[in-house]
Amino acid sequence: MQPLDLFKCLSDETRLTLVALIYREGELCVCELTHALALSQPKVSRHLAQLRHCGLLGDRREGQWVYYGLEASLPGWVKTILEAAAGEQGTRLAAPLARLAAMGNRPERHLAMC
């Protein structure tokens, strides 16, 4: 991954917020992200697809759910930038993180949201 490609991928506010949330939480499914950001499923899925195409995110399937996490093979310099970006997003992430916390634990989230 080249620096220009990384910054192009993160230049959109929604994509930056998605990556910051996933960085903080480890992995999240689409339904968790739509609930946390109060955005439509198609919009979130489109941005997740772009982030996967950029090489920032990987996914894994568990039943009918697909979980997104940071791509394991990201270079250290990318992880450092994502850590800094997630830290700087602290106040912006407060409301989405509160909505995630209100969902309860992951099995309850599936029943309630997905």
UniProtKB/TrEMBL annotation:
Keyword Transcription regulation: yes
Any single Pfam family the record assigns to this protein: HTH_5
Domain HTH arsR-type: 1-89
Keyword Cytoplasm: no
Matching Gene3D superfamilies: Winged helix-like DNA-binding domain superfamily/Winged helix DNA-binding domain
Source superkingdom: Bacteria
Sorted UniProt keywords: Arsenical resistance, DNA-binding, Transcription, Transcription regulation
NCBIfam families: HTH_metalloreg (NF033788), PRK10141.1 (NF007528)
PANTHER family in UniProt: ARSENICAL RESISTANCE OPERON REPRESSOR (PTHR33154:SF18), TRANSCRIPTIONAL REGULATOR, ARSR FAMILY (PTHR33154)
UniProt name for this protein: Metalloregulator ArsR/SmtB family transcription factor
Source organism of the structure: Halomonas saccharevitans
